[in-house]
Amino acid sequence: MSSRLQTQARPDSLLINMGPSHPAMHGAVRIMLELDGERILNSEVEVGYLHRGFEKTCENRTYFNLLIYTDRLNYVSPLINNVGYVMTVEKLLGLNIPERAQYIRVLMSELSRISDHLTCLAAMAMECGAFTVFLYNMKAREFLWDVIEATTGARMTTSYIRIGGVRADLQADYEAAVQKGLAETRKVLKDVHGLLDKNKIFLNRTRDIGVMSPENALSYGWTGPALRSTGIAYDVRKAHPYLFYDRMNFDIPTGERGDNFDRYMVRMREMEQSLRIVEQCLAQIPKAERGLMVDGMEPAEAIRAARTQKPDRPIKLSPNLEGSEKAVTKDILADDRRVTIPPKEETYTSIEGLISHFKFFMKGHGIRPPKGEAYLSVEGGNGELGYYIVSDGTDRPYRLHLRAPCLPLLAALEDLIKGRMLADIIPTFGSMNIILGELDR
Amino acid sequence: MEETAILDALKERFPKGVVEASVPLGDATVVIRRDALLAIIPFLKEKPYEFAVLLDLTCVDYPERAERFEMVYHLFSLVTNKRLRIKLSVPESAAVVDSLVRFWKNADWLEREVFDMFGVRFAGHPNLRRLFMNDDFEGHPLRKDYPLRKRQPMIQLRK
Questions:
Q1: Using a CB-CB distance cutoff of 8 angstroms, which residues of chain A are in contact with residue B142?
Q2: Which of B83, B105, B136 lies closest to A219 in CB terms?
Q3: I need a labelling partner for A211 at 20 to 30 A (CA). Which of A118, A170, A338, B30 fits?
Q4: Given an 8 Å threshold on Cβ–Cβ distance, is A47 in contact with B72?
Q5: Span A401-424, pLDDT tens digits
Q6: Which among B55, B81, B106 is the nearest to A411, CB-wise?
Q7: Could you tell me the residue ranges of all domains in chain B?
Q8: Does B137 touch chain A if contact means CB atoms closer than 8 Å?
Q9: Which of A91, A216, A221 is the closest to B55 by Cβ?
């Protein structure tokens, strides 16, 4: 079937494809272009090359199991996706989360946001020819991901935020690692400001290019840094505070013109605000009650002892089960057997714990939110990341819909590049931070 | 309850159009008749409510219901900082809803997505094509009767 662009094209214009496999297309988007010389007369964006049926898959997985699919949406900030999904389920369940877990979620969200912005700007700058910025940003991101890796055990596929809390507590030395990451990021931000802010080449390619008016931005449903670059100070963290964002002191940076440069600048300044939030988190986070389990019983010994009576000493768990000890879970997981896995010692040494464990994982049992529907959104790297879940009372969502912040952004691309030069697509597309994993679902 | 103010206003203004209004889990929700949509949206877009953003537009499939598809709209107002959920039902035999493209530009892609995934058509949409799936795709994947593991490869798979 020929597209609208093909049927309506002028006979003397040139039709070319940009993508789906193009180094600057961040995944796989196809932009069909009608060109007059280097000027774009019309364009048509085609998405779906990365569609993998996220929503259909989720309808067929239990609430616990589908968490891993949310990692793969916006793969640069998977922790924010986790937070959004988990909080929507918690809204359906009406759960209360321990304070420490909520602070950990804020901390992880902000670290993810910084790494998301760093990645976006790295790619954008590299596509404009500033390879140094790319390397600097990637270096800073590594330090942040060191913290994420030490805490969650993975760099991207984290699945760390769990319904009821988080999977494991922070590492003992996390504070030093976070401070190191913050210091490195600050240094990089300063360098990048120096490299790009007054750089003639960068300015020529970003200033007054891809300009969006506030009215159009709203009509397109833009949110996040892209909307704020047009001057509208809407941020989910301020407008509908979730977690402990109402306890945090931070500003919402806005732009004035809504062009590529403003989108770059808003992201840069937002990272500084996120650094502030992380620092406040470090100061406010309540101390964990646990001590390290060094002198506990060996698991095999505990299981033997449990045959006759309940063991009275703490049990040393294998490193693979780190974070599921009784002493840890009370700080970071809600005390509600309907929705959380019991601590491993209970599972192994008591019949009640074993039954709770089985009930959690058995088909048709597990987490079963009451009938109803909920929409909840968090501020993702690109804007309002919303989940709409319809529950029919079973252990699987009847319908799960993701409001991907990228979709409205990309929908506006045709308007932004119309009448501009071919080369303007690259910084415009780059400044919007299109993540196809999230857009195509 | 502040959430109910907009619901009361809607009930008063459109006594026939509004079927039900409630606030489940803190989300203001209004169920309307599908022929009232084009009358209600301009009312919501104007002062004092000014729902300037169409956050989301999606559909839920209930095969056992007489009116199988339920459209779900999420609006947001920057002025009042409130969200509103609008729901309406569509039967499978006449699965056509009025398009909102004239009110919001992002309705274009969102409606194409719903058409792609559920087969609900939108009257007045300028370019109603599939968004994610290819044009030759048969069926609508998010309908409950579409099998989870059905494959429609575009090239011959190796045996």
A1: 55-56
A2: B105
A3: A118
A4: no
A5: 999 898 999 889 888 888 888 888
A6: B106
A7: 3-92
A8: no
A9: A221
- What is the pLDDT confidence band of residue A389, given thresholds at 50, 70 and 90? very high
| Percent of chain A residues past pLDDT 90, beyond the cut | 18
Enter the CATH code of domain A62-287+369-439.
1.10.645.10
Report the distance separating Cα A116 and Cα A432, nearest Å.
12
- Tokens 């609006």 correspond to what residue? B75
Give the pLDDT confidence of A91-144 residue by residue, as tens digits. 998 888 888 888 999 999 999 999 999 998 998 888 888 889 999 999 999 998
| pLDDT computed for residue A85 by the predictor | 92
Instruction: Tell me which residue of A383, A381, A377 sits closest to A115, measured CA to CA.
Output: A381
Q: Is B138 on the interface with A (CB under 8 A)?
A: no
Q: Please provide the CATH number assigned to the domain covering B3-92.
A: 3.30.460.80
Residues written for chain A = 441
Asked if A440 and A49 count as a contact pair (C-beta separation under 8 A), the reply is yes
> Closest approach of chain A CAs to the CA of B112, in angstroms?
11
Burial category of A256 from C-beta neighbours within 10 Å (exposed 0-12, middle 13-18, buried 19 and up) = exposed
**What would the pLDDT profile of A258-315 be if each residue is shown by its tens digit?**
889 999 999 999 999 999 999 998 888 887 765 545 567 777 777 788 788 777 777 7
Nearest CA in chain A to B74: A375
- Closest Cβ opposite residue B109 in set A60, A219, A407: A407
Instruction: Tell me chain B's radius of gyration from C-alpha atoms.
Output: 17
**Burial class for A260, CB neighbours closer than 10 Å (0-12, 13-18, 19+):** buried
Chain B contacts of A55, Cβ < 8 Å? 117, 142
From chain B, the residues in CB contact with A384 under 8 A are 55
- pLDDT value for A275: 92
How far is it, in rounded angstroms, from Cα A216 to Cα A289?
51
Residues of B in contact with A440 (CB under 8 A): 132
